[in-house]
## 1
Amino acid sequence: MRVLVVHGPNLNLLGERQPEIYGTQTLAEIDAALMQEAKHLGIELRTTQHNAEGAIIDALHAAREEYDAVIINPGAYAHYSYAIADAIASLRVPVVEVHLSNLAARETHRRTSVTAGSCKGYVAGFGGRSYLMALRALQEIVKS
Ligand code: DQA
């Protein structure tokens, strides 16, 4: 099983960026934990981070043929990018949306995700663990 993880804008700054909200784990640490869990689960994993909306869409298009599942944290694009929602909807493989913070407990403009509705499911509020939970869930649903 091959899984692509797409990290969206500003997530390259994790660790330094608003640690009171997003925690102190860096993106490299989140990726290392994901790689370790993927190895344990027998999953082939690749991670990528893009700040630009178009680059995220290109990564999703490229995933159409190459991966069995996708995990995406669209960052702030989750709140308004219909273009990313459409790109997710174009995939035939399951996509799980992930957020470090619990969007339901945040500012009003962050409580809606326009991209989550195109996904198979959604994990938010567990910091870097949100990604690991998404990976385990995908392994269960793809294998069954
Ligand atoms: C985030 C939540 C978004 O509202 C924010 O813009 C981010 C991070 C999260 O993982 O909690 O960049 O996607």
Note: Residues 2-143 form a domain with the Rossmann fold fold (CATH 3.40.50.9100).
## 2
Amino acid sequence: MEREERLPEVSRRVREVPPYLFAEIDRARDEAIARGIDVISLGIGDPDQPTPAFVIEAMAEEIAKAENHTYSPYWGTDRFRQAVAGYMKGRFGVELDPGKEVIALIGAKEGLGHLPLALLDPGDLALIPDPAYPVYENASRYAGAATISVPLLEENGFLPDLSALPESVLRTAKVIFLNYPNNPTGALAPLSFLEELVELAHRFGFYIVSDNPYAEIYFDEEHPPHSILEVEGAREVAIELHSFSKTFNMTGWRIGWACGAERLVAALGSIKSNMDSGPFKAIQHAVVRALSHPQCGDFIRSQRELMRKRLSLLKEGLSRLGLRWCEPGGAFYLWVHLPEGYQSSIKFCSEVLNRAGLVFGPGRGYGVYGEGYFRICLTTPEEKIAQAMERLAGFLAS
Ligand code: MLT
């Protein structure tokens, strides 16, 4: 005991940055299950559908090849980076040099975790949207950066109000994080907004980190989400992160990429090569084969169709309960106003878990401006969504 008391504390960054939101949600869910509560989880964007057979079959072949068992090149295999550049060209019309402007990631979250170390020195300023995926803020703080919240308000379509950002902040900021289709609100960013932001980045001298893992999940087939790299001049100031996780139901596989400004990709590559050894080559080859597989386009469309069906089911259920939501353009989340009488999203989510066995994401977990809302995921089968709505009705009536 005495000996332990003499041991030093773990790092300040660990002590000062809050626990990961979804680990906390999992912990609360598991505690409820351990208490015998029958839980329906609508808390995390982890697709319930399997990875498509054409990816699994490709993986089965690739994993059997001994040459895939060794270290990957640090930036990913040539084939992977070329395939990704091909996808960016086909989907967004963006031309990239696969040798200099693309790097493989062990999932987009890994890239987001390492990017602040590549771009920010202690004391540098990062602009963080609020509400947002908590990794932007926490990874920036791990890097020692100062952070300022940029409110995403419903009345502004959950876009940052760029005209409200003081010039002094724009001049000081080194990085702004962006995420459209947006988690947690489902908002999309019009090209005009991205153009304005790129222009500001050039004018005031800051970088844009665009987190774009939901680019293939949207509700209006006629209006697919953009890549910021479509904007002229973005290739000098922006880096964009993409993921196979949400598009191909592959969250556990850990594979994604970052692309864009050569200087930023190189900085990320420098950090990564010192910190990790890249994704498993067999996975890289399997997803390369997936991208050019004849069923790829149909599969992605079928996933969107599924999310659309679930979204209308969920909206029907919520409107029967008199709840209001923010109409999403993409991603697989519904951002819902707290029922009347509730001020705290944490309190609401905790009561609904304990009394109705439903896991939702409390809006406050995504930032101060998330208060007043809760998030429901569409990554749960329809019968569970229907059951969840019945339980919510019972909860609200009680
Ligand atoms: C979410 O539910 O917001 C995400 O799926 C969590 C993650 O990607 O880590």
Note: The chain has a mean pLDDT of 96.
## 3
Amino acid sequence: MAQGKVDALLGIVFGDEGKGKVVDYFTPRYDVVARFAGGPNAGHTIIFEGKKFVLRSIPSGIFDEGKVNIIGNGCVIAPDLFMNEARELEAAGYSLTERLHISRRAHLILPTHRVLDRAYEAAKGKAKVGTTGKGIGPTYSDKAARTGLRVGDILDGFTQKYERLKARHLQILADLHFTDFDITEEEQRWLEGVDYMRQFRLTDTEIEINRYLAEGKSVLAEGAQGSLLDIDHGTYPFVSSSSTTAGGVCTGLGVAPNKIDKVYGIFKAYSTRVGAGPFPVELFDATGDRIRDIGHEYGAVTGRDRRCGWVDIVALRYAIIINGVTDLVMMKSDVLDTFDRIRVCVAYEKDGVRTEDMPYDTEGWQPVYEDLPGWQTPLTEVRSEADFPPAFSAYIKYLEDVLRTPIAIVSVSPDREATIIR
Ligand code: IMP
């Protein structure tokens, strides 16, 4: 952590890498914690002082008195869901209004964006993305089309702007013959949420964050989703609609590339994916079920089963390059404790063609594996590298060699102390 710099903490595969735990571990060192992309499609589970919280839009530094938390311009916010989340924190005794700053340039998710999300998915038939249904895609579409509503609009001529955009959405829904919705109640809550948001610091966080950096403060950019869900670099069209990679830190917060210092790339000792889309390492057998059961791989937002597979070097290597990862963080290593053989996907193969580079179209590629011996020893009580079973040390060494990037942190159980710095 360097003064006057931004460190980024990013999930580098398909999200759900366990960022919540790492952010929780990291935040005490930073002055400012900022979210730069995504919205309530995220679900960061944080256990703080024995209580469990799922943060969706609010940065994870919110539990700490002295920290500034920023929801950056690259984010999208649903006022009703934001209100629920904030009230829950307030009820638990955390005061937010001074500590949470929201960019006026962040975009608002309207109730009709959520209906559009459903309508577009329904229209796609078999090619569904399997979205979280939170209106993410339609909101970013309006942003790109220059028709969106921003947080700053809450403060100026809001009703008229809202009604205009809503009418536009209703017209699109009528054109699609999508009638399966009634937003009356939801809209009431949403408008209440808009009112509720007015008490927060709705400000130019882009200027603020640069002022903090000039004063020598340290900033942690907290990622959401994962690199392979990035709108540009992910497995398009099976992606989310924001820039989840390191470039998104710059555009989503208004910080220059030369302000970024460390880029921590978080991955699990195996792979998971929620929703549709190519996933070459997916296991359809009992091994996949076993990883899901032991790793509790069910979605934090939608409760869906996560698809599971072995670690994917092709994907990781690609994400390391795209993000400029300086340090890797390996999560949930203990989930593999009981396996006698650990497989590692080192390349993809299709029609006799082998590639170690992420292909343009990941559909139809088969994984090429190398096998390593399992450690078959419980890791959850291990607190120091000296106590790693030799086969686990060999797994780490193998990954570091093929990824040419150090694994700086290893997590061996959900406990805060089970985080081993190497
Ligand atoms: P959307 O972000 O709701 O539009 O969903 C697009 C794709 O991203 C779907 O496959 C979702 O399952 C996936 N996705 C969105 N947010 C997350 C997340 O926080 N973790 C994992 N997958 C996510």
Note: The chain has a mean pLDDT of 95.
